[in-house]
């Protein structure tokens, strides 16, 4: 969903350059938004898109404040949820 260089991922509007920088340069492929974790994907045909991979319904406290989000890599995401949600092969 690209409109005037704006991409909406995980319900959040980002610029194309911001997403490109986080995804390719910083290797952050996850968006953490309150209690939900999204994995960001890139396709040459579809562009950037995000898919929900985890929702924390067990805890009252979110990972971020409501309305806030962070970009994260695999290691930080696993550390944040407290268990191995993502398989990390190094």
Compressed to H and E, one letter per element, the order equals: EEEHEEEEH
* Estimated share of beta-strand residues: 35-45%
Can you tell me the residue ranges where pLDDT is under 50 for at least 5 consecutive residues? Answer: none
What characterizes the major β-sheet? 4 strands, antiparallel
The radius of gyration is 13 Å
Class per helix and strand makeup: alpha+beta
Number of domains: 1
Q: Give the strand order, joined by hyphens, for the main sheet.
A: 6-5-4-7
Assembly category: single chain
Mean pLDDT: 88
Number of DSSP strand runs? 7
How many helices does DSSP assign?
Answer: 2
What's the N-to-C terminus distance? 33 Å
Helix fraction?
10-25%
Shape: globular
Key descriptive features of the protein:
single chain; 90 residues; alpha+beta; 4-stranded antiparallel sheet; 3-stranded antiparallel sheet; 7 strands; 20% helix; 39% strand; globular
SSE arrangement:
Layout lengths: L1 E2 L2 E4 L2 E4 H10 L4 E4 L2 E8 L3 E9 L13 E4 L1 H8 L9
Antiparallel strand pairs: 1-2, 2-3, 4-5, 4-7, 5-6
